[in-house]
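Subject: Sanity check before I submit

Could someone independently write out the structure tokens for this chain? I want to compare against mine line by line before I put it in a report. The sequence has 229 residues.
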Amino acid sequence: MLGLENITQSYPAGFRTRQTVLSSLSWHLSEGGITGLVGQSGCGKSTLARIILGLERPEKGRVTLYGKDIWKMDSKERKNFCRTVQLVPQHPDAAFNPRLTIGTSLKEVFRFHDICPQNRQHEYLQATLAHVRMPEELLERYPAQLSGGELQRLAIARAILTKPSLLVLDEVTSMLDVSVQAAVIQTLRELHREHGAAYLFITHNISLARVFCQKRYILENGTLKRYER
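---
Independent answer below. Compare away.
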């Protein structure tokens, strides 16, 4: 589905010097699986995520979706890419405008993507909230009125509105306490069974990756290696 071919990325690290974060990295994410990307803070996980999402262009190499280079897509293809690959951020409040109600923020997705007819949008939104076990009354609240766990589930709801083929889950449990972490992971399991989207689960927690992911990779010194244990 999504391929990375010889990705290299570096950043300025001083006068006429650069630090290489990713080095000739090649990787393939297949449809429907749950893949873990594990690494310490600063190893390049977030850089790799931004490259996968098309938010950052690599110095070398290319990213492809179903064989098409994402940086050579026309406007229609790019829009489809944005619908197909969705992010659930580490800080769920980043998914919502603090000045808008949750309902208004979620409905903005319909403005950019042709998901369903206008007369069915509220019904579609209700069904999506049910998938993440969130009550409809939360639509009238503002982000500051909700807990971290509620916001994270709603961020997941926002991401799955477009029926993506790939969800990039960037440290989605790291800001939550243990009991809420377990609830969010269970929600993600249920969504995966129901919808079958591929997950890229980015985490520093190898124990959590062992439990949740079908395949696990370690990002270290700019390269990936399969984690078998």
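---
OP: Matches mine. For the report I'm noting this point. The first strand starts at residue 2 and ends at 14.
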